[in-house]
Amino acid sequence: MSVTDQDKIRCEEVIAHLLQYLDGEIDGEKRAEIDRHLEHCRGCYSRAEFERLLRRKVAALGDEPAPPALQRRLKALMEEF
Ligand SMILES: [Zn+2]
Fold first, then answer.
1. How close is the Cα of 62 to the center of ligand 1, in Å?
2. DSSP state of 65
């Protein structure tokens, strides 16, 4: 096992900051570290993509709650992580 850029910050840290990251609330070195991590880490990358997609869907739905079928689907997806 080799130590590479992806090990500079850990998955937990990326996940913990993911929402702020997607909101553009994280800048500078921290943002660059997360960018680098996402380039290397499939798990966090798909998590980030999932959150992005979710946000787009939520935005498209407006303030309405997600329909039960979607909620079940999301729950199933979340359990994969
Ligand atoms: Zn990761």
1. 30
2. P
What tens-digit pLDDT sequence spans the chain (81 residues)? 444 544 678 999 999 999 999 999 999 999 999 999 999 999 999 999 999 998 888 888 776 666 777 778 888 888 876
Residues 6 and 41 sit within 8 Å (Cβ to Cβ): yes
Domain count, the chain: 1
Q: What's the CA-to-centroid distance between 80 and ligand 1, angstroms?
A: 14
**pTM recorded for the entire structure:** 0.63
Compute, in angstroms, the gap from residue 28 CA to the centroid of ligand 1.
Answer: 19
